[in-house]
Amino acid sequence: QGTRDHAPAHAALRDRLLAAVVACFKRHGAAAIDTPVLELRETLMGKYGEDAKLIYELQDQGGELLALRYDLTVPFARYLAMNKITNMKRYHVAKVYRRDNPATTRGRYREFYQCDFDIAGWFDPMIPDAECLKIVHEILSDLHLGDFLIKVNDRRILNGVFAVCGIPESKFITTCSAVDKLDKMPWEEVRSEMVGEKGLSPEAADHIGEYVQLHGGLDLIERLLQDPKLSQNKLAKEGLGDMKLLFEYLTLFGITGKISFDLSLARGLDYYTGVIFEAVLLQQENDHVEDPVSVGSVAGGGRYDGLVGMFDPKRRKVPCVGVSIGIERIFSILEQRVKASGEKVRTTETQVLVATPQKHLLTARLKLISELWDAGIKAEMLYKKDPKLLKQLQYCENMGIPLAAIVGEQELTDGVVKLRDVATREEVRMPFYIKFQKC
Amino acid sequence: QGTRDHAPAHAALRDRLLAAVVACFKRHGAAAIDTPVLELRETLMGKYGEDAKLIYELQDQGGELLALRYDLTVPFARYLAMNKITNMKRYHVAKVYRRDNPATTRGRYREFYQCDFDIAGWFDPMIPDAECLKIVHEILSDLHLGDFLIKVNDRRILNGVFAVCGIPESKFITTCSAVDKLDKMPWEEVRSEMVGEKGLSPEAADHIGEYVQLHGGLDLIERLLQDPKLSQNKLAKEGLGDMKLLFEYLTLFGITGKISFDLSLARGLDYYTGVIFEAVLLQQENDHVEDPVSVGSVAGGGRYDGLVGMFDPKRRKVPCVGVSIGIERIFSILEQRVKASGEKVRTTETQVLVATPQKHLLTARLKLISELWDAGIKAEMLYKKDPKLLKQLQYCENMGIPLAAIVGEQELTDGVVKLRDVATREEVRMPFYIKFQKC
């Protein structure tokens, strides 16, 4: 339940999608790494907050206590610390596992692909962060998913806001997770959760509300930098200064049109320490789709400067920033679009079917196909001794094979092969000598 | 333990290797499918004989009882039965899991890739089987692994041999697993295991010994077809007849030079019902390798006509034949060869580094690299505001980046970019207008 087989049409479409994402990661100079699906349980514990209950654990059959990886970020941080790597740009495309309630219509599964790109190392501020946003912009543009918006915020700004609103530091994380719900529920409900469950004062909640409902661009950053309270808060000031720098870089990249500085963005995970971002599609389906999918965010990420240090015996930090592409959600949109368009996804790449119009020509077909394979040509034949020509041509049509290479008795005598364009039925004779043997 | 991270140089080499294997599978018209890493425990039980103890089981955290897949064949058979598919040619490249004693120097891990190609369906005899052997031949040739031999046998012939030697049918499987050890120990030891542990009579064991030490080609098949006892056994006769047909087809493919009909080949798994085969490297290392790897078999497979029926409620059979490429063993050979040659594996595909010779040119670099990315060019820059030119060129040399695109103040004024060949230090100036901004 919540896992699935990928049938050929699925797998072919998914491979195309992954290829586009990987092409972008490679364009940005990332190297591939791969880590095991199994991690030590202790590696995963204490990294995901409340979500730790969704981790799949392996049975104790002797040996180490193991669990299935929950994401690709924690294994990456563990990998950097274990190998004492302080500088790396890597991508990783692999499956992760969550004991979640699957919502399969929305592209949510218990086993699903993640596509991550991360930059680790001590660098000048906001240059790698800006590149991560550029990558999201490139991928969402390349895939023609329709209009999108990338919301950006900074954990330091959020924490600064909480501080100036009089929230004690011990309640930052829980307040953060309340703010995180603003994309799903109206402010009033979030406010009553803050006052009720989280125990904030109504005044503090209202004060937070004034901030977290703001969104804009450079103008908003400038305004907040002038804000009498926020500008007094060290963290907020740092965050806002970096946000301004980020917007300058994004302007050079020419992508600010799709970026929104949004103070309501909080992101669920504990380990973020700086910039955070999330991309959402603005129009999630085109008119042809009968059953529109609600997809939510299709990419997200941020800066996590403390995570690698948690795995280092000496707590040495390696700053990191990264992005994860929500490939499963994007896949379910593309799949619906393909379905709606009636387009047939080819599941193989076969270029030519080796066919015969008469009986007793298996030998000739085997010889011909063998030479085609050896020449690097993608070729198939039916696994029958004497298939009917019609069946062979129908197979081409069903599978989208563009050409048939036909050898009949006449062709063998003449030392040629008849090459037939399956769609147009045009035929040309090509020299091809096969030693004749009846079989 | 027994799992590993794949560092960039590993991952890059492995990706190349997998790409070569997948290219061959696609050349033969296979479609990709993907199945979950998690299978129901009951799906895996009773399929692997004694090896079932090596299956990783998940903890019971509520919901179904799960296990990690042990190979790709059983999930494929389960997939066919579940979806009532009776005709399919598919490949699957994915990781499988075994709680084995890892022998990591020989490329044996607890988490490892399998690359499988299988043909399912009711076809004329030996045509798909011959294609599987052709695939093994193509892949091992393409990878230039040195000389190799593909041993072929048939479970029906083995069972026929056991029958004419007076072994009761109840002891076929256990006798088979004794024979399977002939590639690792001499006949005398196998014989004493048969007589001791397995309880065969010394006469029966000696009789079996006369057969299972035979190997050859068409001549041997013909001889056994004339064997007064074997030719009376229905199973053996069927198997030998098909083996003859197989060799005819392999002759047409021109690959019999590397095929040996070998009666000692038994293969461990229970589910084989017809042709079985296994490829071994004859010279496993070249002279440059200091620490030669013993690799054993690098590919194997066979016909399993009964497995799909085990998953079908009405026990409907779908005949299958397939091959699995031992990619991890091949990888450890290639890796040692690369090490020995001193060749540096590039881990990224970056074509050009955007560099500056002076300070205060971050803006120009960001503009230029953004345009390169948008033009689909694989480009990197150092994440520093003012890196030294020497550092930038050293980065190119370390990472194998062939070109540097240099923008200095003069270039900006002239509206050009200096393109430098890192290896030859040749430079050309190319028109490239960037609006100048100090940063």
From TrEMBL, chains A, B:
Its EC number is 6.1.1.21. GO terms for cellular component: cytosol; mitochondrion. Residues 1-357 form the Aminoacyl-transfer RNA synthetases class-II family profile domain. The keyword Cytoplasm does not apply. InterPro entries: aa-tRNA-synth_II, aa-tRNA-synth_II/BPL/LPL, Anticodon-bd, Anticodon-bd_dom_sf, His-tRNA-ligase, HisRS-like_core, HisRS/HisZ, HisRS_anticodon. GO terms for biological process: histidyl-tRNA aminoacylation; mitochondrial translation. GO terms for molecular function: ATP binding; histidine-tRNA ligase activity; identical protein binding; RNA binding. Keywords: Aminoacyl-tRNA synthetase, ATP-binding, Ligase, Nucleotide-binding, Protein biosynthesis. This is histidine--tRNA ligase. It comes from Chunga burmeisteri.
